[in-house]
Structure formats: C-alpha cells, structure tokens
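Protocol step 4 of 5: obtain the predicted structure for the target chain.
Materials: sequence only (see below). No template structures provided, no constraints applied. The aim of this step is simply to have a reference model before the mutagenesis design in step 5. Sequence pasted as it appears in the construct record:
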Amino acid sequence: MTEDTSQEMAFVRRLQAHDERAFNELVEIFGQRVFHLVRRMLNRHEEAEDMAQEVFVQVFKAVGQFRGDCKLSTWIYRIALNLTRNRMKYLARRKDDGRNELEPLAERSPLAAAQGVTQGELPRPDDAVSGLQMEKIVQECLAGLEEDFREILVLRDIEDLTYDEIMEITGLAEGTVKSRLHRARSALKHLVEQRLGESLP
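Step 4 output (structure tokens):
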C-alpha cells in the first residue's frame, strides 16, 4: 500500500466513524468537482446544486461499504454519475424543458472538450463571437449530445480523468470508452461549427 493510499484509507476510516470534520473536509475537497460534473451533465444550475447535495448524502450513507478497491474520488464520481443518470431519466419522463442557465465555469472549460474545437481554430467572423458567447454555444452543444457521449466527454476532456478511472466509474471497456470519446468529440465539433454557421449574418 502506497503512502497516498494509506492516507486515503485513514481518511475513509474517519468518514466511516462519522467524523463530522472529515465529512466537511470531503465536501471541501470534492464539492466543486461534483457540482461541475453534475452541472455539465444536467445543464441546469439549481438542479445541479440539489443533485450535488444528494451525492454527498449518498456518499455519507454508503461510505461504510467503501473498501478501497478504487480511489475515493472514482467512487464518488460513480455515485454522482449514477444519481445524475437517474435524474436525467426522471426529467426526460416529465419532458421537462426548463431553462438552461449559462453559468461561469471554473477549472477546465467546455471549450477544450473536443479535439479541434478550440477558440483559435473555430471560425470567428468579424470577431462577432465573444468569449462568453462562445462558452455559451459550446455549453449548449455539449448539452445537446447524447447522454452516453456527453458523460464520456465530460469525464475525459473536462474533468481530465484517466481512461482507467473512466472505466471504473462507468463500467465500460476501454475500447468502448475510446470509441464513444472519439464520436463525442466529432459530434461536438460538428454541432459547434453548425451553430457558428447559423450565427453568420
């Protein structure tokens, strides 16, 4: 067991002992990461806030079952993704088309979410597309991807997780992850270029 793994398991034992300070530390460490993951999947700010809270409720309830077979972060992401998938199915059944809100996104931007989809390479007619407008376009196009593609793209290109971590979170084979990622990047690039074309005068 490496020193990092040993330290993580010591932290997990504090969580399993219902150490309130440890739980507050957990939320401080992973709170924003979980929120951004859920936010980019749902594309709804208030829903994401509620879901992020629910993720940590579930983590607190289930931490006794954590055995260290994967990294704590991977385990938390798996819970977040499963809860988000269930929420998306619920919203789809309701045919809820609530307003998608553009929020400033910290850390890695969706602008870097697809190979070839960067501010420098996309057409910028007369510089009419500002950075904020571009962010909004890419965010909306990301939300328009099929769920299976969107989650792989978010996990790999925005959250910067490794293929091994994504395989553990999703339960998918490496070939499937890479195939979906390639198709997701191509689809996002196509959607963004299409939207930029529509914005031409």
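Step 4 remarks: Helices lie at 3-16, 20-42, 45-62, 72-94, 131-143, 147-158, 163-170, 174-198. The longest helix spans residues 174-198.
Proceed to step 5.
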